[in-house]
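TASK: fixed-backbone design
INPUT:
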């Protein structure tokens, strides 16, 4: 689908995207690049980065890849420094890197929990921490010394309620949302950096989804999803573009849910809508005809 944003929405900006070599992170990278940003992607597997970089360059996007593990502070520092060396500034940091697997709470080892917390939560914070010196107001390379950059942290909606076999991810994503809000408070006040989150719902055609929901989600989703379909990577990328462009200049500390209304959804009630209307009318009539009656509704 064509983007509704102008092609220069983030022109001249430099964006660093962790997990930018695949899935949602790659689509965010692509859309930031198509709207004028120079992009750097980070991940552990070099061949994944190389193939993503060549696909981005084939679209005319200025792109480079630096391999590294967000769990290692020295990798985070090296990639942030390399980004600055390559493009001379840093405006947008997107933390999309994450680990996931299915496990019941009973089978989940403390190490399994720790690994996901390390990648998702500690990794997100480590990247923010290393990027601060280039994102803050007046940082090296920032031509507009009066404003700071933007951080986007990708979480999920799993922890809004509870999710089977996802204790580890729910805990990690809840901590990411808390990190987002606290950084928005502190770094918004001190450095004019806007820090926001995006919470995707079920997004089709992603590595995460094929790992966790092996069958075609759209064919079984009719009764589950209010909009009758899973989302697309594009939907998340458009939210990222909105939040990182000037369109989002007054948005700070928000977690934007992009899930088609999935997390608020409930099974349809057992009583069909027409039967509910008749029941409601008969209850209303009985109450009106009874002793004392009820005041007539003006609605
Ligand atoms: N797919 C969905 O429906 C969905 C729903 C809700 C939230 N999300 C979130 O959206 C984001 C993207 O998900 P996705 O499904 O598109 O999955 P994905 O492509 O598998 O994303 C994970 C990316 O993170 C990188 N990564 C993992 N561990 C890393 C580490 N330690 N250091 C650096 N990079 C690392 C991976 O590359 P390497 O393995 O090469 O390092 C990969 O590129 C994740 O934060 C996920 O939790 C997805």
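OUTPUT:
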């Amino acid at each position: 689908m064509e983007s509704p944003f102008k092609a220069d929405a983030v022109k001249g900006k430099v964006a660093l995207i962790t997990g930018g070599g695949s899935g949602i992170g790659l689509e965010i990278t692509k859309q930031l690049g198509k709207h004028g940003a120079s992009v750097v992607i980070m991940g552990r597997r070099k061949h994944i980065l190389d193939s993503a970089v060549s696909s981005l360059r084939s679209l005319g996007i200025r792109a480079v890849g630096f391999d590294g593990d967000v769990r290692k502070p020295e990798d985070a520092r090296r990639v942030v420094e390399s980004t600055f060396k390559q493009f001379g500034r840093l405006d947008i940091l997107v933390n999309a890197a994450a680990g996931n697997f299915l496990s019941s709470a009973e089978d989940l080892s403390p190490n399994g929990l720790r690994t996901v917390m390390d990648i998702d939560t500690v990794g997100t914070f480590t990247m923010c921490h290393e990027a601060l010196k280039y994102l803050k107001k007046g940082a090296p390379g920032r031509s507009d010394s009066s404003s700071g950059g933007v951080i986007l942290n990708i979480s999920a909606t799993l922890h809004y309620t509870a999710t089977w076999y996802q204790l580890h991810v729910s805990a990690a994503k809840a901590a990411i949302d808390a990190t987002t809000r606290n950084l928005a408070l502190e770094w918004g006040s001190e450095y004019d950096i806007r820090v926001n989150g995006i919470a995707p719902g079920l997004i089709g055609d992603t590595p995460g989804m094929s790992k966790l929901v092996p069958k075609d989600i759209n064919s079984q989703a009719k009764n589950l999803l209010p909009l009758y379909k899973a989302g697309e990577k594009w939907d998340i990328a458009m939210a990222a573009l909105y939040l990182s462009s000037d369109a989002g200049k007054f948005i700070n500390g928000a977690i934007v849910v992009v899930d088609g209304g999935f997390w608020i959804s409930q099974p349809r009630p057992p009583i069909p809508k027409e039967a509910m209307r008749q029941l409601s009318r008969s209850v209303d009539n009985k109450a009106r005809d009874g002793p004392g009656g009820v005041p007539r509704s003006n609605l």
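COMMENT: The radius of gyration is 23 Å.
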